């Protein structure tokens, strides 16, 4: 029997999550994730009440133009720079994201990249797999840089930045951070983190982790000038967003040995990756998987589904999406619960 609302899911999701949706609404799911043009997105959204989208789906005023039906967009991610929230709000469309459920898993991955890049794990593994470990290895081969006991810098100190900072204690690290607003004293104490100016962060950090949201202000927050101020023994980790780092400038710094290594999970223009980065042995590269543990991706998908159902007036949270980005959008569309 057809239900009162229809939703579109822009990529395959966990079957149990789709089953939750299907209890309340008609669901159409794309068989694979793919980059869609604004025209394709407009067509997909034209005849549905809600949608679950991901970071590759850019939902802006152009995509929404002429759409009189859509009432809710649930983003699969805590970052939502793919959503033009003011345009959604103006159109009376509720927008949600997936905070909290991915904080610890994403912080773990920052450490995975930091350690892998600092200790050359991936290039050593490539070398071994290539059959090049035949004895005669020198005692001073494969020297990396230490992580323990060093100063960890964090740019962006929201939930994930704080979770990265807390892990620093286990490695006996001093933690310094820069954020637009300073954390309350109690949180700084708990994270054992000291606020510093950005220029000082760049100079003092032995290793630097980027965890800030992407917007016009954070575009190329780490560019050629910033890289010049970092230590040549430093590792740079980007688990935030492509575009926060000037990837071309980073590739030059890594090639010239002005930075020891980088661990990158996000890229400008991903899924394309700057070819200069792909050629570098001192760059550890992964395809935007910081939140990708089985438990966390399932929890993100479930939260997106819960948000969408609630926004459309279904399920235990009916009318109250757990992670609403634009409360001012509610009630603007006729017929909304
Ligand atoms: C992605 C993320 O959503 O939550 C975010 O902002 O960047 C990630 O969790 C996920 O990797 C899918 O692209």
Automatic annotation (TrEMBL):
This is D-glycerate dehydrogenase. Coiled coil: none annotated. GO terms for cellular component: cytosol. It comes from Dyella psychrodurans. Transmembrane segments: none annotated. SUPFAM superfamilies: Formate/glycerate dehydrogenase catalytic domain-like, NAD(P)-binding Rossmann-fold domains. PANTHER family: 2-HYDROXYACID DEHYDROGENASE-RELATED (PTHR10996), GLYOXYLATE_HYDROXYPYRUVATE REDUCTASE B (PTHR10996:SF283). Belongs to the D-isomer specific 2-hydroxyacid dehydrogenase family. The keyword Translocase does not apply. The keyword Oxidoreductase applies. It holds the Pfam family 2-Hacid_dh.
